[in-house]
Amino acid sequence: MPRLPRMTNPSSITTRVRIAWALLVLGSIYALGWYKSAENHRDYRALATWRQQLKDLDGESKAEKARLGSWIRSLHSHRDAKRQIEIEFNGGAPLSIADGTTYHWMHPEYGIPVELAFNGNEIVSSSVAGSQIAQAHREPTTTYRSGMAEAFRRSIAEVLPWLWILVFIVAVVSSRHGLFAAITTLSLSLAYGCAIIVSPYYTLSVSGIFSNDRLFFAFLMYMSSIIAAAFRMPRDDARPEFRFGLRTVLVAMAILAISMAAGSFGYVALMISLPGLLAYLVVVYSFQRPSRTLTHSSQTSTA
Fold this sequence. Notes:
Number of helices: 11
Strand order of the largest sheet: 1-2-3
Radius of gyration: 34 Å
Structural class: mainly alpha
Helix content: 55-70%
Mean pLDDT: 78
Strand content: 5-15%
Order of helices and strands: HHEEEHHHHHHHHH
């Protein structure tokens, strides 16, 4: 006999589509946050290296300033002082003197400005000022506070809280669109929290997190969205079935590996997901009861 075609359960297709969309949204939020966090850390390291370089050169510049001052003073009595300056400062090439008497030079490494006044080939006056290291070593170009990613982050941080409030009202009031609205508020709260976490004006440290008032508000948005979604979830689909197998272990290991690869941003995201999962399970198993259809079918089967 020919085999009949297998019938696909429409509900399973709908569930898979929902899961795919949820993974796409969460993955996009996580990827954008990871990118902005990596940009922040890249610029933080560049600025830290630059500041350390200035600090290291500061002590060396003082010694170099004293050497230059002593050497130039010793040339005041030399008739070929101009030639000595050309060799030391200009690679032996003739000096370019704008007004014919005064020559300005700055140390390329330590930013020490030198001013020399000549009368023919002799030095009549000299000045060696304090080092200006920051001019010799300019601050590296950064984009963590002015780039496109930062502009996008700021727009999200300004708009999403108001949009979340509107959608959350729909999640609470509307019985028809409540579930979709609740899931939307969850996505909005995650996007807003991600935008606040990767702000270049805060650090992903204990003091930086607990001093961030907007991040606390994002956490309240997130927990409220989790609870609303748990209450709006259909009774038969709300309680997850825990099946620990090889697939579960591989998924958990993949999530942990991605979080560790993202550094501090990944650790914070992983820690925030735990109270949300706990709140969802508490609501589902404490305040939701199985549907009447499920209860009736179980009673019938028992009879």
